[in-house]
Amino acid sequence: MDVQQHQHPIAVARAEAGMSLADLAAAMRTAARRHDRRSGTTKQQVHSWERPGANPPSDWSQQLMAEAFGVDPALVPLLGWPYWLPGNETPPMLLGTGDTVAALREAQRRAMLNRRTVLGLAPAVLVTLAADWATLDPTLAKAATEGKTVAPEFVSWLESSVQQLTGLATPDWRHTAQLLDSYYDTVVGLLEGAAYTEPVGTRLQLLASSLAQTLGWIRFDHEHHTAAAHYWNAALHAAHHAGDTDRGAGILSDLAYQSMWLGHGTPAAEVLDHALTRTQDPTARSLLSLRKARAHAMTGEARAARRAIDAAEHSLSTATGTPPSWCSWMSPADLAIDTGRCLIDLGEPGPAHQQITLGTGLLPASRDKTRAVFLTYEAESLAHQGEIDHAAATARQALALAQRIGATRCLRQITTLSAVFQPHRQVHGVDDFLNAVRSIA
């Protein structure tokens, strides 16, 4: 299975503008002359900025690039590099403006681009979105005035069908994604042009939110991060419109998880703080607290991470009723494994391995995607402890699962970990694992 390389954000912006490397360099030189200054930007320089891991352009070069792309220069410091680049980040529509359908359609448009990107929402935008959600009062859906009336029975059929599709095991999602897209288009079309009572409108908003949340995860698993972020933003709009604060908190948690996956722990912790203000369900609070612990551990904040782990344990131990559907899978297995992941980040591989081993043993067979991610954590923990042969065998198992599921983000997680094994090729099992990784590159 091929794991494609991400398109660099500059390359994405150039493609949307129809610019070659030389075109962008020339436009930047022209922009400099408008300021009575000179720029030595060449196509070779632009190419060097597009290389993986390259340092970003200087502030001056970014200002010139913004002018070349027709971007308001004020967005450059506001959104930060590379989030201001066109084709990578469109600031989400504000909550409470009545633009729910527009947000749902924008997510659909982004998904149609079908490209792998390294960007979600800009951290500053993500935190602002979460703060708005935590303070604005929800507005219930109002009845539309045009189109044919939507029968409640038809909405019930849609709800049942979508529930069956989203309840399938993760490996089946690759086969159901197109069906989910068609249901999404149908539901958004009803919100756009049909007439319905207020209760039916609320149900349609919640159905749109559920579909957008699931479609966001499908795009996220295939590393279409910009599309995933826009689906989750749309899901947040629809949940807010319907007044479902528990679902809204879960969607913010998904956005925070993506932010952590892309290496941004600090904004993720802020988003989760906002999410925790509007959900009281113990299972939901446990998940949010656990992800907050991960965010703090990423940034080395050991005390804050342990407080969040304690809060997650306490909330899960008090859960007695039926949790919201978006976190119904949360279990002691997840608590143990993510605690172990935190301990890896905090430099405690021994206790981390104990927690991850415990949790992996508790994980049900139906959650193979989660198992693939967690086995990769376990392999990393073992490698840190010097148990290279055991680590290689565990990583090989994770790779096999990830290949079967077809989630490219899991495959990339494993291929990134493979660098740890390069100095140990003489150890039993390492060469086989590295050869298997090379076969998917």
Automatic annotation (TrEMBL):
Residues 28-57 are annotated as: Disordered. This is XRE family transcriptional regulator. It comes from the Bacteria. GO terms for molecular function: DNA binding. It comes from Kitasatospora phosalacinea. InterPro entries: Cro/C1-type_HTH (IPR001387), Lambda_DNA-bd_dom_sf (IPR010982), TPR-like_helical_dom_sf (IPR011990).
